[in-house]
């Protein structure tokens, strides 16, 4: 896996098509989750809904926090190390298996794992984009679109319209796509693609009612849209597979969903922390709204991000998260942005810290929880230190 390079990207489907032509595509029902923000949460809600109704569910998402094994789960359990290695060797044994990129390798391993486990449903979260994302090779019966926003502009952009056009490419000929709320230019791209390939585009608000009265397993006001999209997706899937969707069971499924790092509140050494993977302006806006809705004002913020993120658009949102200090730790990895430069850009309330561990204890004592956000890779460093918070 190290040799393949975690961040090596080559957005084509040629290697994936060659792999599955040699192996043979598994005949598994697939729901594809595509978008910019909320993919992991929507996949988690859908997984929980299907499991609550007795379905065996394989879930593939990214990135991982501590171990690559987190990306591939069957009924919310990681594969054993022995099974993971066995499947990895199976991938390598297929002609063209050695040509796959890191993400492609993981995607193929996931589908082999789901085939071996005999899952009733494979929930596949797209990594980057849509049309040429490795997960788009499986011809899903249903595609769910979470909100699209500006992210990875250098690869998919530069405009939201460009990004949405690429992601809309995940709609297959004659397929069905369900979408949550979208900006007008993104919705136009979805409509254009659906019309061009003779697919059906359905709005989640027409397929499922509000979930406002349910105590969702994932907190934050923005999660209501993700939960509603997942509920619409589950009902559509259930109807297509002659499964009975029971309201009480749906409520249980939504309430029991779990995904680390999404407005996750934990206690560490007597202090309350909120862990959230908001890593772009769209996600930070949602995080701000979630904090206001729950009347929470963080006493301090620990923030860091990767070099390829649009820091300029995030700056006013970062400053608005707290009236207290903002600590910017140095992160591991070649893609990490210079923490001193981030602190300088944020302004006088921001200070560079040598590490996440140091940032959590530095600064004056303040009222209110500490918010850790800005990058899933920053949260990964937290979970490496505190792995017990990775599970419900």
TrEMBL record:
Pathway: Cofactor biosynthesis; tetrahydrofolylpolyglutamate biosynthesis; Cofactor biosynthesis; tetrahydrofolate biosynthesis; 7,8-dihydrofolate from 2-amino-4-hydroxy-6-hydroxymethyl-7,8-dihydropteridine diphosphate and 4-aminobenzoate: step 2/2. Pfam families: Mur_ligase_C (PF02875). It is an enzyme of class 6 (ligase). Keywords: ATP-binding, Folate biosynthesis, Ligase, Magnesium, Metal-binding, Nucleotide-binding. It catalyses: 10-formyltetrahydrofolyl-(gamma-L-Glu)(n) + L-glutamate + ATP = 10-formyltetrahydrofolyl-(gamma-L-Glu)(n+1) + ADP + phosphate + H(+); (6R)-5,10-methylenetetrahydrofolyl-(gamma-L-Glu)(n) + L-glutamate + ATP = (6R)-5,10-methylenetetrahydrofolyl-(gamma-L-Glu)(n+1) + ADP + phosphate + H(+); (6S)-5,6,7,8-tetrahydrofolyl-(gamma-L-Glu)(n) + L-glutamate + ATP = (6S)-5,6,7,8-tetrahydrofolyl-(gamma-L-Glu)(n+1) + ADP + phosphate + H(+); 7,8-dihydropteroate + L-glutamate + ATP = 7,8-dihydrofolate + ADP + phosphate + H(+). Residues 261-359 form the Mur ligase C-terminal domain. InterPro entries: Folylpolyglutamate_synth, Mur-like_cat_sf, Mur_ligase_C, Mur_ligase_C_dom_sf. Its EC number is 6.3.2.12, 6.3.2.17. PANTHER family: DIHYDROFOLATE SYNTHETASE-RELATED (PTHR11136:SF0), FOLYLPOLYGLUTAMATE SYNTHASE-RELATED (PTHR11136). Functions in two distinct reactions of the de novo folate biosynthetic pathway. Catalyzes the addition of a glutamate residue to dihydropteroate (7,8-dihydropteroate or H2Pte) to form dihydrofolate (7,8-dihydrofolate monoglutamate or H2Pte-Glu). Also catalyzes successive additions of L-glutamate to tetrahydrofolate or 10-formyltetrahydrofolate or 5,10-methylenetetrahydrofolate, leading to folylpolyglutamate derivatives. Belongs to the folylpolyglutamate synthase family. This is Dihydrofolate synthase/folylpolyglutamate synthase. It comes from Pseudodesulfovibrio methanolicus.
